[in-house]
Specification:
Elements: H1 3-9, E1 28-41, E2 44-57, E3 61-65, H2 72-79, E4 87-92, E5 95-96, H3 102-111, E6 113-116, H4 128-138, H5 145-154, H6 170-183, E7 188-192, H7 200-215, E8 219-224, H8 227-230, E9 235-240, E10 243-249
Parallel strand pairs: 3-8, 3-9, 6-7, 7-8
Antiparallel strand pairs: 1-2, 1-4, 4-5, 9-10
Helix pairs in contact: 4-5, 4-6, 5-6
The protein binds adenosine-5'-diphosphate (ADP) and magnesium ion.
Adenosine-5'-diphosphate (ADP) binds near residues 69, 70, 73 and 74.
Length: about 260
């Protein structure tokens, strides 16, 4: 699957279809060239990202590692078309975000990316089950309640289907957010500190689910400050002060999840 095929897949009636295509080694699903994001604040300038080049292929699990304030959330927001860069070019799933029309961006957000937000962003007036069904509806997947139940069971929430977000712990809300993102079948999965609220045993389970996604030709990009999470990745990109300071294969090779602990 190359970027052009990924682009045409956005026009299909079944947006999950492409995720069953085999991944080819060189299919870039995410491509950033010279991307910067500056904020003007109180007469001063904050450079959240500076000249970032990044390429993630279909079938790759990449962890972006960096301390708080290094630009991780800014990076994910740009890739997910929730923000626009002040310089550079961003191509995701065949859509050039920096040139796309408003209607192309709407289609892109529904059918190209799945987001696991740092603050979960669940709908407070929908139950766990309804939040996940909403993820299915938005991306046009018709599988409905059974699929939503199955996904919630996979994240260990079989007994929490009818709970509202305020009736769930932070870690449980995070798992609902993961189930909702998995529901879409979109080719690019973006996760902001997806294990931040989780003990390492639950966190390992979530990482396992994210690892599985790349098998179906998705690209998974996880940002975190937690170095231990990086051991689950194929490739680790290090961010510091808005710049990429390292980018390479996971030195020690993917560690078995059972060895991870934090
Ligand atoms: N909306 C904003 N306005 C001004 N500065 C911001 C805004 N969002 C983020 N920043 C700044 O950009 C830098 C990177 O932030 P962020 O991407 O949230 O980092 P991280 O997710 O790695 O903690 C930080 O210095 C932060 O204060
Ligand atoms: Mg952040």
């Amino acid at each position: 699957m190359d970027a052009r095929i990924a682009a045409s897949s956005l026009d299909r009636s079944d947006p999950t279809e492409h995720s069953r295509e085999p991944a080819s080694a060189d299919a870039a699903l995410i491509e950033l060239s010279g991307v910067s994001r500056e904020y003007l604040i109180g007469g001063g300038r904050v450079s959240a990202l500076e000249s970032v080049d990044l390429r993630v292929a279909a079938g790759e699990f990449v962890v972006v590692l960096g301390p708080s304030g290094s630009g991780k959330t800014t990076l994910l927001n740009l890739i997910g078309a929730l923000d626009t860069p002040t310089a550079g070019r961003i191509l995701v799933a065949g859509c050039e975000l920096t040139r796309a029309s408003a209607s192309e961006l709407i289609r892109f957000r529904r059918h190209a990316v799945s987001f696991i937000f740092q603050t979960f962003n669940l709908f407070p007036s929908l139950t766990a089950l309804e939040n996940v069904r909403f993820g299915l509806d938005v991306s046009g997947v018709s599988a409905g309640a059974d699929r939503a139940r199955e996904l919630l069971a996979r994240v260990g929430l079989r007994d929490r289907l009818s709970h509202f977000p305020h009736e769930l712990s932070g870690g449980e809300q995070q798992r609902v957010a993961v189930a909702r993102a998995l529901a879409t079948g979109n080719p690019v999965m973006l996760a902001d500190e997806p294990t931040g609220e989780l003990d390492f045993e639950t966190g390992r389970g979530i990482l396992g689910l994210l690892q599985e996604q790349v098998g179906s030709g998705r690209a998974v990009l996880v940002v975190t400050h937690n170095r231990e999470i990086a051991r689950a990745a194929d490739r680790v990109v290090e961010l510091s002060g808005g710049r990429v300071i390292a980018d390479g294969p996971n030195d020690s090779g993917r560690r078995p999840l059972s060895e991870l602990r934090w």
